[in-house]
Amino acid sequence: MAHLVMSLRAVNHRLTSLPVQQLPAIAASLATSISECGELLSSPQSQKTGRTDSDHAVQVHKLVTRLSSLLQDRTFEGRWVAVVLVKALVEAGQWEILRGSEPFVRGLMGILNKPDPTSTKTMAVITLTRIFHLTYQYPTLVREITTPSLPGFITSTLNLVSVKPPSEPTRRLKPNSPFLEVVLCAYSELIARHPTIFRPFTAQIHSVLQAIVGSKSASHSQSVVDISEQLFVALHQCAPKNSGGEEWKNACRMTITSIHATANHVLRAVVEQWESVDPLLRQQLGHSIDYSSEVGSHGADALGLTGWRGLDLGVDRLLVLMRMLSTFLKTATATTVSIPVGTILDLTARLMSVTVPSDAGGVQANPSISRTEREHLLTELPRIHAACMRLLRTLVNTLETAALPIAQTILEQTLWVFRAEKFNKRIRASVYDLIHVLIDRIGPSMTKKNVSSLTDIIRTSCTDILPQDIETSTKNSISEAKGRSKTNANAINADSFLNPNLKQGRQLIGASSSNKFPRLARAASTLLPAILTNLPTEYLAPPLRAEIDRTVIMTSSKDAMFASVLNPFPAARGRGASISIAPFLVRSYASGMDVEALIRPRMPVLTNTNAIGQYVAPEDDEEEEEIIDPVSASETIPESTGFLQPSTTPNLQALVDSKSTATTTTTSLSKRTYTEEPALQTQQPSISSNTSTKPAGVQIKKARVESTVSASPLDQSEPVSSTTTIQTKSFKEDISMLDVDAAASSSSEPVAVGQTLVSQVQTATQPLVEDEDSDDEMPTLNIEPDTDEEDEE
Amino acid sequence: MLSECFIASTSASAKTPASASLRDVGICLHELQPSATLRSTFKKSSTAPNCLAVSASHIFAAQSEKATVHVYSRDKGNQEATVPFHERIRSLAVAGSKNGDIVVLGTEGGRLILWEVCTGRQVVTTASHLRPVTAVVVDPTTNFILSGSADATIHVWSLVDLLSFTKPPSGRDRQPANSPIRTFSNHRAAVTAISVGHSTGRYNIAVSTAQDNTAIAWDYRTGHVLRNFLLPANAISLSLDPVDRAFYVGYEDGSLQSVDFYKDHSVQHPLHDPSLQSTPAQIPAEERWLPPSADSGAAHTLTLSYDGMVLLSGHENGKVYSWNVGRRKYASTVADLTHPVTNVIMQPLAGLYQQAASLKRVSHTIVKPRFDHSLSENSQFAGTVPADYEFNTHILSEATSARPDWFMNAFSNACFPTSLLEQGLAELAAVGQPTFAATAPSSNVAMDIDDSTKDSQIAELERENATLKQKVSVSQTARQVTTEEVTKLRSDLANLHDYINELQQKQEQSHREKIRREARKEERAARRREAWFAAEKKGKNGDAALRRLDSEEGSETSGTDDQSSDE
């Protein structure tokens, strides 16, 4: 404590002895010293007894009085320093300082009305807000400090940013006030805590916010508009008791009505096919629109925003209102509110049903509107749709599990827009983001048709991650390799023949061009892991899965590679092993903790010992390790020897061949293949089992019969895992250390590898027989397209 | 502080509780750790097993022998509503674990009722079960419902399909709407309990027990059997380890048993090892964990603590026992609720740091179910969301605050950030020296000075500028002048040098001439003397000769002078 008193004394000394003009330079260090003395400043006064403790009290008192007088100082510097130090003091002292903070509050309020520099006033606003914020948890302090001074604070801050004409309840915004942002931030911080104090000012604040939100040009920065939208939504909290929810709902409904009204004008160049599900709204929108004049709205709309003129401003207004509606959905509310989910979906259905027409036409043109306006509208449509999708994403994020009933509806709206406007990068990025949150919710129970409707989106996301040129170049090279000498339209570029490096160069250029819109690449690359994780993998078409895997490998995205390894494509029945990109993952991220856990799992098992749930002594630990270590080695070595060729080579043909020959070779191997049959069936939840449950049951029974047959010749005393024991036998020559007991005890450490490694282990033995074959087919990156060909055959 | 609680419910019985605090109590919130004490109670409820569900804000209790569900508010601590249904409810579960948005009810008649508690929407499925639905669970992805019935089948339902307004395109056209997607019929007798694994991946498992003395671990995504377990008795309650390593069953005699998936030594995952899937595992009867007293009655319900190391069981005699999972035996009696304890549900740990932030919204009150006519009957807008579909909730999320970073930094940190202080210092410097204020380079330092003063400053500066320019021009001209002078002087100097050289040459010349003249004079004098001497010798008067010579000389000298100058 002594050093704290010392540093406090040093602060006091500097504050009093140095001339005021020199104080700003050391203000930062003084503030740091004060906040380091927090322990001292916040300790209760009453407990201080004795001589040294009274010294504490004296020093604290000195500091407080000095700062109070500095707040009233004649010079700018003195007041500036006072504001900086008061903030630090209040933060450090907590209740002990807060209870005496009344003179500070008065001084700070005085600064707001003086001609001080911007930063002094800004910091004064922040400091006052902080004091009000900190006192909130102490009702007595709220009564003594906040309640008396908060109305004055609101008035003087409103005066900073606006002018109140006498005899009017509303306010006019001051142009280019530097305080706008900080004042709005302060309000949104305080309004939820002191709604009753803000209540008399709601009309004034509302008028200021209307002016900001409804401003025609980009006169306010985005952050100012954002914060004012948030504050606009938060104003409902000032409503009298129990009517807050009603206010919120009214404001939300008015925003929706306002959007509809704006859309009436903006979309007048086309004939809309949409019809509202809300009969009330259908009536409201029945009014005819004047087609003769320039597009625009004259009077104020439902929200009280001013009229606009010209399509550009109309679209801007539409976007602002859409963002406002999203803000409604994500801003904290005072009470229970009812989110009009049905109406919001009705709105997005309207806006998203008008799409950019394809060649075959799509929207019906309104004959009374000029072609130029229609074309202008069609170029603006992607922006509107991106805003719609942002709104929907907010809705899904807010509703979480309750979004299940509407997820399918949203998905269909999204697919509709994507089909028409996928040429637009902004649309693509928004679609990826929205699809991501949707399949997080409903992915696992998606049907096959549903998944196939996403195919187009998945393909485009792959090409958005990888530049398009790689696609074409690899395809070209493959087709050349296959000897299909077709004259390609792309091959006209003679330079590419003369200089093979050109492809590389173009690839780099392509990569850099995708960097120009980083949001797109980011959205696409977060979508892929979500797809692999959530969708039923058996419904993804094999060529599509191959494309995803290739993209994932090329980009070396760890998440996506993990998702692919953990959700392998189920092996087709009779085709042998499943495909896994695990080697690529391990090569790229061998040192990662999660990769380690995947390859060499150490999941603790419930054991029979009494020591469970306790930290055992180190000797026990070592013992355990001794048991485990040789085992895990013996497990991994056989895997790694034979593992690379079959599992990564998705060359199914070779595997099928090897299987037919394998049955004739050794008895142990023939047993293996029998036991493999049911394994394949577990991994392949065949499509037929989904269409009807009965055939699946039959298959299962059949499988059971087979496996019992295979199990019977095995040693009955140890019916553990036929595959393992056999496999270890086959590698016995290689690993002389291996003994069966160790293998058995090894499995006390369970292998929760999932299907991936399991299937790899199964296939690991086969290449031994087919060595000369598999040598020819070493895994390469371009192997996936090969499998595509086969699947098509 | 970290604390762990559980919620237990009882069914009514003839017994009267010993303590007054337990009178009429049907559901109680009981603390397990740090001290086993009763926290709060909810009255007037009698529930059968599998008929209690808990969300963050509410407790739902289906009443035994009645067609009603009691809803209790956990915030207010009272009964909020009694919701009537058309049929008796035999099982109940909550979907959407965090918020509990959807309540799934299994009815006496073999159908499921889905009730969205925030909207009041209600969806009824087909009566796919032939007997009452006795167990309902929802999987961790909130996509599937598993319902077990006394008819020995378990149906798997897609929650999304059931709830969606727009029906997804499916290949299941031949089947009626709102029917299960899969049926699991490996049990031979009434299903007593179902439990779902804790994974959201596609290899998640389900474990179910039935009255045929079996427990089956199976894959509910495919309907494939993973493992059969032959139990020594009829299991009536079930709980699954948090890491899915084992499950625990409770029997009618009050004893418990754990079944460890990893007991067998296998390199492969034991549940996914095909060679084991057909072989039922015999669970020996002597490994059962025996209850402390023989009159404990059936273990109606089981639940596991957060760390999976304490197992709680609710018994017919009204006691809640705690069991040590590691030692595999009874540990202590946690509570005595007099009436048969039918449900015990462990609550998540309170006091973990990130937990409070995770709840994005809360529903304080439920909306009673209303039959959704627009769902099925409305043909005109089939597949669209009705306009009056509203979601009642209280949004709490402040996670994505729109307030800019600079404000939050300044607002919540102990000191103002340096960037703000530096800006202030720059402004102070500008204010301190007002004459040079405009020269301050920082553009974002917005001065709070009126326009008039600015104008005057600008004017002053312009004036100053003008005078400075004038001065510069003056000095420039002055310099020009001096340089001109210097060049002139330089040229003068050169001229003078030339003059001096000329003069020197002249002087030299004159000097030479003088020497020559003197030489000539001497010569003449010598000649005169010679002439005088010669005249004297001849005897003539030397002087007269001299005079004659002089007269000669007068004409001669002029002539010789010319000659010499010519030479």
TrEMBL record, chain A:
InterPro entries in the cross-refs: ARM-like (IPR011989), ARM-type_fold (IPR016024), RIX1_N (IPR012583)
Major subcellular site: nucleus
Domain of life: Eukaryota
Transmembrane segments annotated in the record for this chain: none
Biased composition (Polar residues): 633-652, 680-694, 707-729, 756-766
SUPFAM superfamilies per the UniProt record, alphabetical: ARM repeat
Name used for this protein in its record: Pre-rRNA-processing protein RIX1
Lineage of origin: Eukaryota, Fungi, Dikarya, Ascomycota, Pezizomycotina
UniProtKB/TrEMBL annotation, chain B:
Listed Basic and acidic residues bias regions: 508-551
Principal cellular location given in the protein's record: nucleus
Annotated segments matching region Disordered: 504-567
SMART domains: WD40 (SM00320)
PROSITE patterns: WD_REPEATS_2, WD_REPEATS_REGION
Biased composition (Polar residues): 556-567
Protein location: Nucleus
Keyword field contains Translocase: no
Source species, domain of life: Eukaryota
Amino-acid biosynthesis keyword on record: no
Each WD repeat, start to end: 126-159, 184-228
Pfam family, one: WD40
Keywords assigned: Nucleus, Repeat, rRNA processing, WD repeat
Family, similarity comment: Belongs to the WD repeat IPI3/WDR18 family.
Function (record text): Component of the RIX1 complex required for processing of ITS2 sequences from 35S pre-rRNA.
Oligomer and partners: Component of the RIX1 complex, composed of IPI1, RIX1/IPI2 and IPI3 in a 1:2:2 stoichiometry. The complex interacts (via RIX1) with MDN1 (via its hexameric AAA ATPase ring) and the pre-60S ribosome particles.
PANTHER family referenced in this protein's UniProt entry, alphabetically: WD REPEAT-CONTAINING PROTEIN 18, WD-REPEAT PROTEIN 18
Protein name, per record: Pre-rRNA-processing protein IPI3
Natural source organism: Aspergillus keveii
